[in-house]
Amino acid sequence: MPEVAPVVSKRRAALKKLSVPFVDLGARHAPLRARLLEAVGRVLDHGQFILGPEVAELEERWARRCGVRHAIGVSSGTAALSLILKALDIGAGDEVVTAPNSFIASASSVVLAGATPRFADVGDDFNMDPESVQACIRENTRAIVVVHLTGRPAAMDEINAIANRRQVVVIEDAAQAMGAKSAGRPVGSLGLAGAFSLHPLKIIGGCGDAGMITTDDDALADQLRRLRNHGFQNRQEDCTAWGYNERMDTLQAALALVKWDHLDTWIQRRRDQAAIYRRRLVKFVRIPPDRPNDQAVYQTFPVLADRRDSLADFLRHHDIGCAVHYPVPIHLLEAARELGYRRGDLPEAEKQATRTLSLPIHEGLTDEQIHHVCDVIERFYDE
Ligand SMILES: *Cc1c(COP(=O)(O)O)cnc(C)c1O
To answer: How far is the CA of 5 from the centre of ligand 1 (A)?
Structure first.
C-alpha cells in the first residue's frame, strides 16, 4: 500500500468576536461620573467661571509635575502655541522649524503668527530628525517647535544642542505627551516653553477645549498671563499691551482635576498595552522605537504596516477601531501650497504617511482586547 500523506487541515481556529473601540469617551468618563458632576456643582456654586480657583490649582499641580516654576491655563493647545509665539514676538520675516507629520496646529500657529514654518524630516520614531532640524536653520530662524509626537519624547539633547549653537529658542509641542519623560526629565521643562492640550482625547483633558503652557522664565510667564487675558495685569487700567481672550474655563480645570488622580494609572495602562503590542507584533509590522532613557506615554500607538489600507479594512471588519495619523503630511496640504513644498521634499514623512496605522490604546481597554487586536493582525498577515 502506498503511503498517503494525511490531509492537513489549513483551517484555523475562528477568531473570537470582541469589539475594540479606538476611542470611547463615554466609557472613559463613566467611572468618574459622580465625581465629575460634583466638581461641576462646586463651580456652579462659587460662580467664578473663568480663571477661577480650580484653574489656579490645576496650574500649580501642572507646574509641579513638569518641574517648572509656571503653568498658565489657556483655552486650548493651539492657543498655547500661538500665545508662546506672540509672547516671543515671532512673526513676519521669521522662520520656525517644526514637524511635517504632526497635528496641523504645530504649523498653523506659526503661519497665523505671520511667520513661516520650515519642516524638518522625521526619523523612524516619527519625531523630528536632529540632522534635518539642523539643515532647516537659517539666518532668520527664531525657534524650533519640537513635537513629542504620539507621546514619545523627541531627541531633546540633540535638538537643544543645535538650538543653543544657533541661538534659536526651543518650544515644546507637548500636546500629546503629558507625563512623558526624556532622560528622567518631564516634557514641558525641556525648552523655553511647553504647550499642552487638554482636549478630551489627550492623555488628560477636560470635557471640552483647554490648554496649558509651562515655562521656567518669570518674565515670559508674566507676559503670557497678560496675553491670555486682553493684556490686563489685573484690571483694565493696568493694560500695557494688546492681548487676546484665550483664558481657561474653570469647568475644564475642575473636570481635569478629577482625572488628575488617575493620570499615573492611565499612563501605566497605556505603557502596558504598548508592551503587549511591541512583543506580539514585532514580526508583522514596524514599531517605532523608543529612545532607551525615555518614557513615552503613547497618546497614540502607530505602526508602519505593509498593505496598510487593507489591514485597516480587515481590522474594522473585525470590529476593531484604527485611524491614520495623519494621511497627508502638513507640507502637502492645500493650505500649505504657498509655502512651496513638493512631493519628495520630505521623503521619510511622506513614506510614513502611506504606511502608518494607529492601533487602539487607552485606559478603557483590557489586555484581552489588546491581545485580540494582535490575533487579528497576525491572521491578516498569515493569510
Ligand atoms: C491636539 C494637538 C494640538 C492642539 O491642541 P488643541 O487643544 O486641540 O488645540 C497641537 N499639537 C499637537 C501635536 C496635538 O496633538
So the answer is: 60
Ligand 1 atom nearest 197 alpha carbon: 7
Cell triple for residue 341? 513644498
Classify residue 95 as exposed, middle or buried by CB count within 10 Å of its CB (0-12, 13-18, 19+).
Answer: buried
pLDDT digits (tens, 9 = 90+) for 64-102: 999 999 999 999 999 999 999 999 999 999 999 999 999
325 CB within 6 A, ligand 1: no
Decide the pairing of beta strands 70-74 and 211-215. antiparallel
Q: Are strands 211-215 and 181-182 parallel, antiparallel or unpaired?
A: unpaired
Angle at 240 (CA atoms; ends 238, 244), nearest 5 degrees: 95
Instruction: Taking the CA atoms of 200, 203, 204 and 210 in sequence, report the sign of the dihedral they define.
Output: negative
Nearest CA to ligand 1 atom 2: 175
Report which DSSP code applies to 177.
-
CA dist., res. 168 & res. 40, Å (int): 42
Given a cut of 70, the residues of the chain with pLDDT beneath it are 1-11
First to last CA, the chain: 35
Asked if residue 369 lies in contact with residue 18, where contact means CB atoms within 8 angstroms, the answer is yes
Chain Cα centroid distance, residue 281: 23
Cell 541661538 locates to 167
Residues 190-238 pLDDT 10s: 999 999 999 999 999 999 999 999 999 999 999 999 999 999 988 888 8
CA of 212 relative to ligand 1 center, distance in Å: 11
What is the spatial distance between Cα 80 and Cα 106, in angstroms, rounded to a whole number?
Answer: 11
**Ligand 1 centroid to residue 375 C-alpha, Å:** 32
Measured from the CB, is residue 82 less than 6 Å from ligand 1?
Answer: no
Nearest Cα residue to atom 6 of ligand 1: 77
Partners of residue 147 on adjacent β-strands: 173
* pLDDT at position 311: 98
Q: Can you tell me the distance from the alpha carbon of 6 to that of 258, in angstroms, rounded to the nearest whole number? A: 62
- Where would I find the H helices in 196-262? 218-227, 250-260
* pTM of structure: 0.96
- Torsions phi, psi for 104 (to 5 deg): -60, -25
Q: Which residues partner with 303 through β-bridges?
A: 357
